[in-house]
Structure formats: structure tokens, C-alpha cells
Amino acid sequence: MAIDDQFSPFWAADRHADKRPFLAARREITRAIRAWFDEQGFVEVETGILQVSPGNETHLHAPRTEILRSDGERLTRYLRTSPEFACKKLLAAGETRIFELARVFRDRERGDLHLPEFTMLEWYRAGAPYDAIMADCIVVIAHAAQATGIRQFSFRGRTADPFAEPELLTVAGAFERFAGIDLLATIVGGEGDRAALATAAGDKVRIADDDTWSDLFSKILVEHVEPNLGQGRLTILFEYPAPEAALARVKASDRRVAERFEVYACGVELANGFGELTDAREQRRRFALAMEEKQRRYGERYPLDEDFLEAVSHMPEASGVALGFDRLVMLASGALKIDQVVWTPPAGER
Fold this sequence. Notes:
350 residues, alpha+beta, BirA Bifunctional Protein, domain 2, eight-stranded mixed beta sheet, three-stranded antiparallel beta sheet, globular
């Protein structure tokens, strides 16, 4: 980027010209990925952006708006943080293989890897175990690299071969290897023991008095584990602890962990997938707890999507994943930051 670029608008011809190679790569990646999903028998769907609830996880934040009905009634709606709720309703309706390149929105997120409005590639397989979705992720990432001709991802001094056999690593194994912590020993009855994890963490992270078990887990993950993932090759981090299950089902053979995984390259999280929870009562319980914590921490909560919770009980066994498409394009095109691979910047930015 030229020195004067920070003072010129994104639509200045010379500044846009600098981005065009990355945007061309985005076009090729989009074409290749759509073709692969078509070959696999997936249906591309387009779901609504305005939602009754944008998601019910503690640290997800969504823009809020109003719609005005013809009778003058004003209804609160949210811009979605993911197409997940709508896609799962489609699974309940009978769709078996679906994907979406979805525009999604998140407040409180901006940086070299974060945008308040971005593209998420999300897909689902009914009747498939979550290791099938893991395998999909590796193929999709390789197709992105192949579309641009890149042989190696690189970001901030780290490299990863997108065509190499990925590293499979449990979360517990990663905590033991990179932080020296026996994570599963701090989970009792599917719940995190805050005192036990604080003791195990010692002085590895700064611990605040109001930190929960999940807060400590996240701090250790971000500071000690994630920087070591996806080095040399992709890493699939799987079997997340049950307190971090989100919308994933707990593993039948070990109730301390859930069928949740994430994919990393060069220390960058690319994808977050689940063996999907189909127990509506349990999902409601998790959402309620998350919204209580959101209220305590941020002074707000989002409503529950009752239609979604009803649909969950009608869903088939399924697995799904959300992949940060802009991040994938960034790595597969050789861009240095996410702004280089999107056509226009967030509203209000030049």
C-alpha cells in the first residue's frame, strides 16, 4: 500500500488496482468451491439476514434494527451472526446437504482478521458424523489453494501446507502440550471447575476475580495454544470441553467433551464445526445460561428463537461447519490482511 493510500478512498483507481489481484483470486476460489459442492450433491441456499435472534452465545454481538409493518407496528430484529438457525430449520424441513455463502454481521469485531460484516461459508450434512465434515473442510481449503495456484499459506511468519495431511489434536492434548494443563481434570459432571482450572493455570495467564471457567479456558487457548496451531500443516483441534459445546452434542463415550472442532492454518482459526445437537431441551438450557452470563457481563441479552428450538427437535442427526471465507481467501491469495480480499470496506470506512 502506498503511503498516500490511507488518505485516499477505497474507490480511488490506483488503490483499487492494488486489490484487484486478491479480488480475482476471490472470484476463482468462489467458483471452485461452488463447483465442488455441486459435485458432492449439495444445494446452495439463501436464508434471511434479519432474524428474531442473532444467536445465543455469550460473546457474540449483533447489530439491532427495526422493521415497520404495514399496520405501523415496530418489530425488533437483528442482523444474523450466522445462517445457522435458518439452515437447521431447512434440515428439519427435509434438506439433506446444503451450503450457503452468507453475509453475516458481528459487533465489537474489527482488525486484520475481523470485519463487522463478512462472508461465512456454512454447510451441513444430514446423517453424517462430524468427522465427515472435518474431511470436507480439508478438501475445501485445498480447493481454495489450488484455485489460486498457491502451494503454501503464510501469515505473520508462520507457514502451512494446505495439501499436507492435517494434524489431529484434541483440545485436552493441546492444553497438555502447550500449557502443561490437564484440562479434563477441571471438568466435573460436564461443568467446568473454575477453582481447579485457576490452580492449574497458575501464573500462565492473568486471572481476574470475576473470570469464569470459560474465561480462563479462552485466555489459555488464545495465549498458549492457538499460536502453535496450523504450523507447517493444518491443525484440526477437536473434542472441545463440554462447557464449550455451544450447539454441539456431547460425546456419548466421554461426557466431558463435545463433538466440536476447529481448523487452524498459520495460527489463524478458519472453521468451527459441530456434530449437531438435536435435544431441544438441552439447547434451551444452554441458551438460557449463556444469556444470563451475557446479561451479567454486557448488560444485554437476545431473545430465544422459539421457532428454531422447535425445529431442533425435528432435525435429523447431522453435522455442520462455519468457515470464515474471507480468511480463507486471504491465506490462499497471499494477502496480508482481510481488508485486501473484500470488494468494499465496512460502512463509514475509506
